[in-house]
Write a structure and sequence with these properties.
The complex is a heterodimer. Chain A has one helix at residues 171-177; strands at 2-5, 20-21, 27-30, 33-36, 41-45, 54-60, 70-77, 84-89, 94-101, 104-113, 118-125, 128-133, 136-142, 151-156, 161-168, 189-191. Chain A is mainly beta. In chain B, strand 1 (3-12) and strand 2 form a beta hairpin. Classes of the chains: A mainly beta, B alpha+beta.
Chain lengths: 194, 188
């Protein structure tokens, strides 16, 4: 199962509409992109349940300039956006990921400078985590904190701009997708431009 | 490229939460965290010699020799003490054992601590609890978390009873870990 959203639709104020869930009312559509406003936060792809193995990628439109804790991907998390794995762009700006336990994150990898417009991705397969920038792996690590499927969220601090969300529980299919062909696209549940 | 491993305490991260001591001083690092215990195994690729020397000289830290090296008789007591100071039993470390095996077993225990954290357990050690504390002297809630951790990994729980110490329990569970563990491109 794979899903995607290119956010190509009419400008819209928060909350971000279905198939997203936007409990903090922070997601708006601006110029065919997802813009994070309010106090910042995350929106959840709510249309599907997920396997424990999860892959999410998105374009960090202003990844190098939005500031610390921009462009976040949360995997295997609960409805409170805790107790799962998070990957984000820090103030360096590098991509880093860590484990959230009851609201406290233990970072387990940092590296890989991010430029505006880079495609960032975060993958969990079993207990193996990995992050990529434009398809290039930035380092993997094993972690056994959480093994069960959870929710998928994306977001960031206010001013974060995101484009071309893609997610799957089928890691092999996602890897093929990174090869830049869109042959898989017809199989995806895709938000089409309005 | 060569990866160097260290035992280091966790510190507050400038990005919130915790990260390995010295992690913030390098652009790229990987670490295995110890769940609720305040330590990391830090992995650096081709570390800066000055930073490497600084970490090695830090009494809170330990630089792990090259993985192919073996534990020398003269180093055994120090290695065991450094490992146990992080909350990992070390009575299995012997003279002649490669540091590859030392790191592998330490990583296996980090996975146990991680699962404990994921199950909502608080810190196991501290507040009077040490590796020598027996299972039956732990609070009931802690005992149950340890049992839940073993269950979640499908491990034999016979060590989780009575007078078995935390040291013996972690060693028994560590020995049941068979899955490969990846850190900084090195598979253990």
């Amino acid at each position: 199962m794979s899903v995607s959203d290119d956010f190509n639709r009419t400008n819209a104020s928060p909350p971000l509409a279905s198939p997203w869930s936007d409990p903090d009312s922070i997601g708006s559509i601006v110029s065919n992109q997802l813009s994070i406003g309010g106090a910042g936060g995350q929106v959840q792809w709510a249309a599907n349940s997920w396997n424990a193995d999860q892959f999410v990628q998105m374009v960090a439109v202003n990844g190098a300039s939005a500031g610390s804790a921009s462009h976040q991907i949360w995997l295997r998390t609960d409805s409170g956006r805790q107790n799962g794995y998070v990957c984000l762009i820090d103030g360096a700006p590098n991509l880093r990921y860590g484990v959230d336990v009851a609201g406290s994150i233990s970072w387990i990898l940092a590296g890989g400078g991010v430029a505006n417009g880079d495609t960032i991705a975060f993958t969990i397969t079993g207990s193996n985590l990995n992050e990529t920038i434009n398809g290039v792996p930035q380092g993997g690590a094993s972690d056994s904190t959480y093994s069960a499927a959870g929710l998928v969220w994306i977001g960031g601090i206010p001013g974060t701009i995101i484009d071309d969300f893609f997610a799957t529980g089928e890691i092999a299919a996602a890897s093929s997708f990174l090869g830049a062909d869109r042959a898989h696209q017809p199989q995806h549940q895709t938000m089409m431009a309005m | 490229v060569a990866v160097t491993f260290y035992l280091v305490p966790s510190v507050a991260s400038p990005y919130g939460g915790l990260e390995p001591k010295y992690g913030v001083q390098v652009v790229s690092w990987s670490g295995a965290y110890f769940g609720r215990e305040p330590f990391y195994i830090l992995a650096l690729t081709d570390p800066d010699p000055t930073l490497d020397a600084t970490i090695a000289a830090d009494p809170e830290c330990a630089k792990i020799p090259a993985l192919a090296n073996t534990v020398a008789a003269g180093a055994l007591a120090t290695v065991q003490a450094k490992v146990e100071a992080t909350g990992i039993p070390a009575n299995w470390i012997n003279v002649g054992m490669t540091y590859q095996t030392v790191v592998q077993n330490c990583l296996r225990v980090t996975q146990l601590y991680q699962r404990l954290a994921g199950l909502g357990a608080g810190r196991l050690l501290g507040s009077g609890v040490t590796l020598g504390t027996t299972f039956n002297s732990l609070p009931a809630g802690v005992r149950q978390k340890l049992l839940d951790m073993a269950d979640s990994l499908n491990f034999d729980k016979s060590s989780l009873s009575g007078a078995f110490t935390i040291r013996q329990i972690l060693k028994a569970l560590m020995d049941q870990w068979t899955e490969p563990i990846l850190l900084r491109g090195v598979t253990f």
